[in-house]
Amino acid sequence: MPRKRRVDHEGAWHHVMNRGIDHARIFDDVSTRIFLLELRDACIQHRVQVHGYCILPNHYHLLLHTPDASLSAAMQRLSSRFTQGVNRYRERDGPLFEGRFHSVAIKDDAHLAKVSQYIHLNPVDAGLAAKPEDWAWSSAGAYLGLADKPEWLHTSALFEMLGSTDPRGAYAQYLRDGRAYRGSDTSR
Question: Is residue 117 predicted with pLDDT exceeding 60?
């Protein structure tokens, strides 16, 4: 049976994710740096915009915009180059991920904002960080102005959606609201 075609068109938004084989840990400090470099390169080459990311020990989440409908090409390059780099680093051979990446087409601005919130709250929900900005391998710190923003990370679309004179403060509140909704302790 052929694989289901991915939804991708010019101007599409995507929540992209993949998990290690058998939920195995694949990300450490070195492999995460390799991933971020390969993400940058794949997105530059295929004109894909990164609007958010979170890399956890056994999986990743990306918020991507595809002006040229090039999601599959960018992700194929990312997965291939990342796997080759990690295999060299670890002196191993074979796949790292369960299979091809998963993607969910984002329907509207409300969905886009919720996906961004979900991605940035992932390490808190997993018990890996007290606050989204505490997780080093996420774009949350850059959104909140607490970490350097990589030149390839696009934050303006979400900031414009917030319609605030203080977009960082509004985004911080949006993340706090998401934590409260999930029942997290927002006093941390």
Answer: yes
**Burial bucket for residue 47 (CB in 10 Å: 0-12, 13-18, 19+):** middle
Query: DSSP secondary-structure letter at 4?
Result: P
| CA 33/CA 136 separation, integer angstroms | 11
Q: Residue 162 is part of a domain; what is its CATH number?
A: 3.30.70.1290
Residue 17 forms part of a structural domain: yes
List CB contacts of 109: < 8 A, sequence separation 6 or more. Answer: 161
Q: Is residue 7 part of a domain?
A: no
| Each residue's pLDDT tens digit, 127-158 | 999 999 999 999 999 999 999 999 999 999 99
List, in sequence order, every beta strand (DSSP E) within the chain: 12-19, 49-55, 59-66, 102-105
Tokens encoding 166:
């203080």
- Helices then strands, counting H and E runs in the chain, come out as 6, 4
Closest CA to 61 of 99, 26, 17, 23: 17
pTM over cut 0.90: yes
Domain span at residue 174? 12-182
- Sequence letter at residue 3: R
State the virtual CA torsion across 173, 179, 180, 186 in degrees, nearest 10: -80
Tens digits of residue pLDDT in 79-91: 999 999 999 999 9
Total domains, the chain = 1
